[in-house]
């Protein structure tokens, strides 16, 4: 089976706004191929915060191919293979959203998250963000360049294989108890809408949404709880950090809303995906998907 690492950069908060992609293929215990491309997103709307992260400007992508044109050569490997990504729920969400926005079929996919791999094989109090793990392992790369990030992701998986003396990525997953996640074909997560989750959206999910809670690592190493609570206007995420106690949508809440599990300490990454689906259901109810 083909194994390849995947990384996207996005122009704004929408998952269908990919502006760059990187891929790195693994075979015979090494990285055998690397690709990197800029992408012209459907809307040339770049958020300043995203630009600060990756440095990509609208002018850089104005003459580049769109999502379908860039991704078409790689869809066979992505759909038939095993995808690695660091904070995989985000990158898989971008892939699915981009395909749907481009009018392409959204296939079933199988993936492993190297954040979860790193937490089991290379744990550290500072956390398991891509740059932090790479630094601990001596992996040199340019962070937030999609091609470089995909390379670092693949290199982390290879390092974990060596550390655990497992012959391949599937053996690694079995050895450390991180199951391969499989998502069915169909529509991607729609655009999320901030604020309360409507009762109509919540009704689509029999697993009581008010039971969702997450433990998050703060920037100084403090532990915070983010809980989905029933409010007058619907269910909302509340964080125990200082900003959250003052009723603000803090960065911990915003990260969970977009599927970012980099600082997730609790072992419930699947609940983050459930949360994202609930937010997607809300978007459909409110007519903003």
Automatic annotation (TrEMBL):
GO terms for molecular function: exonuclease activity. Keywords: Exonuclease, Hydrolase, Metal-binding, Nuclease, Zinc, Zinc-finger. SMART domains: EXOIII. Pfam families: RNase_T (PF00929). SUPFAM superfamilies: Ribonuclease H-like (SSF53098). The keyword Hydrolase applies. PROSITE patterns: ZF_SWIM (PS50966). It is an enzyme of class 3 (hydrolase). This is 3'-5' exonuclease. Its EC number is 3.1.-.-. It comes from Methylobacterium brachiatum. Residues 224-261 form the SWIM-type domain. Coiled coil: none annotated.
């Amino acid at each position: 089976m083909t194994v390849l690492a995947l990384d996207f950069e996005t122009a704004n908060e929408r998952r269908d706004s990919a502006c760059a992609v990187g891929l790195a293929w693994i075979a015979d215990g090494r990285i055998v191929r690397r690709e990197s491309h800029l992408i012209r997103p459907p809307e040339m709307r770049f958020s300043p915060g995203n630009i600060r992260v990756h440095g990509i400007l609208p002018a850089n992508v104005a003459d580049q191919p769109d999502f379908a044109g860039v991704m078409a050569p790689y869809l066979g490997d992505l759909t038939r293979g095993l995808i690695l990504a660091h904070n995989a729920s985000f990158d898989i969400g971008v892939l699915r959203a981009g395909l749907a926005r481009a009018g392409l079929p959204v296939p079933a996919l199988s993936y492993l998250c190297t954040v979860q791999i790193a937490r089991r094989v290379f744990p550290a109090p500072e956390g398991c963000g891509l740059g932090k793990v790479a630094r601990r392992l001596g992996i040199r790369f340019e962070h937030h360049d999609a091609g470089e990030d995909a390379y670092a992701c693949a290199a982390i998986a290879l390092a974990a294989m060596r550390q655990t003396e497992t012959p391949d990525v599937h053996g690694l997953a079995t050895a450390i108890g991180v199951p391969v996640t499989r998502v069915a074909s169909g529509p991607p997560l729609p655009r999320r809408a901030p604020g309360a989750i409507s009762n109509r959206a919540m009704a689509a999910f029999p697993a009581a949404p008010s039971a969702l809670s997450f433990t998050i690592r703060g920037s100084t190493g403090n532990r915070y709880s983010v809980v989905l609570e029933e409010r007058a206007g619907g269910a909302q995420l509340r964080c125990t950090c200082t900003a959250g106690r003052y009723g603000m949508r803090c960065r911990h809440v915003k990260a969970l809303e977009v599927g970012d599990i980099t600082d997730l300490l609790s072992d419930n990454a699947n609940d983050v995906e459930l949360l994202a689906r609930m937010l997607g259901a809300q978007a459909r109810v409110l007519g903003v998907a």
